[in-house]
Structure formats: structure tokens, C-alpha cells
Amino acid sequence: MSVYVDAPIHRFRGMIMCHMMADTPEELHEMADKIGVARRHAQHKTLLHYDICKSKRGLAIEYGAIPISRREVAHLIGEARR
Question: What pTM value is reported for the model?
């Protein structure tokens, strides 16, 4: 099981953001706790995920998150819909 982060390209309030998602909700929330992102920021739109800033992405990678491409994000979303 894994946690994933895509490329930081989205701008929000002066920050550059990316998405953090995981194979299970438990893994996702555990990583959010480790990198200091409050669980109330979890989003449940298409796929459970967090929008995190570039510096938090770096921390997530240090803790074992796997960088993935936008194509891989689309694949994860497709899998979640099935």
C-alpha cells in the first residue's frame, strides 16, 4: 500500500499546491498527520485526497510518498470510480 503525490502546479493563495492520495484512507490520514496537515482538509470529491503545498509534498516524499504523474492520477481516479 502506498501514498502518492503529483506535481505541484496548482496555485492557491500564493502557494503552489499538489494532490496527495493513497491506496487506503488510513494511509492517507496517517501521512497527513506526519506532515502536519489537519484532517479537516481532506477532500472527498472524486477521490479522497488532500491538496498540499509544495513544502509539505517534500516532507511526504521524505516519509515515503511516491511522486506520480498526472496520467497516474487519472488512473487512480478511474480505479476509484470502478
Answer: 0.87
